[in-house]
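Hi all, long-time lurker, first post. I run a small reading group and we've been trying to get comfortable going from sequence to structure in the token notation. Rather than ask abstract questions, I figured I'd post a concrete chain and ask someone more experienced to write out its structure so we can walk through it together at our next meeting. Sequence below, copied exactly:
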Amino acid sequence: MLPYFLGCPSWSEPAWRDSLYPDNARSTDFLPLYARLFNAVEGNTTFYARPSAQAVARWAQLMPAGFRFCAKLPRTISHTADLREQLVAAEDFLRLLAPLGERCSPLWLQLPASFGPSRLGELQYFVAELGRSLAVEVRHPAFFAKGEEERALNRLLRELQVERICLDSRALFSCQSSDPAVLHAQAKKPRLPPRPTAFTLHPQLRFIGHPELAANDVFMAPWLDKVAGWIEQGLKPYVFLHTPDNLRAPHLALRFHQQLRERLPGLPALAFPELQERELQLGLL
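-- Answer (accepted) --
Happy to help. Here is the structure in token form:
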């Protein structure tokens, strides 16, 4: 059992065949294969579309007990004019995910860049009424300006026992490339300063990486120190690694874990599939 949660944006990447998954793996095999290596996953898919009840039932059968699925509230809830008007929809979404039990934790609320300080009252009401373990990602510039508006947000989240998700995209934006995947990621991801916080027992990090794995090391180094410190304090952080097209996200996550083991030698090694071992021998990780 790892003392932290580690994973990628999703488990359903066909391009991971012959890398993370065997070449002959079926799509229905992806989740159990993924869960053999990682103990958490971002729930990005639920942001764009609600899963069917049948899909949730299937996930509930396949996810190990200690696995964590950080389901995002759908954008039809988070990206609306008033969060207070979305409580019924949010509660309906929670009922849909109920078969996952505590494996669906924390729930993620990704707010748009238009959600600014004047709407903190909405957030307070929504979180208090929802009554669910929650982590929030904000994108409004005022929440990164180190002024009273950011302090007000942080006070509120501490009081509500809600974690502030930290998204660090510096490695991505350090890349100068004409690769369409890089350009798309740079156009889509926010470019905001990282805010390492630990308001609860479960700090949250989303690291958006450079396509060249080694180029991420300088950006990961402070996070490795931070995550090691959190673990030594008895916290259990969540760490999710991305690359521009996510083809190498599992490799970056494994690289993060290997370097974390240098700081915390007692950490167990991850169980690499044979295909991963070949990459390690080639020095790609």
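A couple of things your group might point at:
The chain has a mean pLDDT of 93.
Residues 65 and 220 are 29 Å apart (CA to CA).
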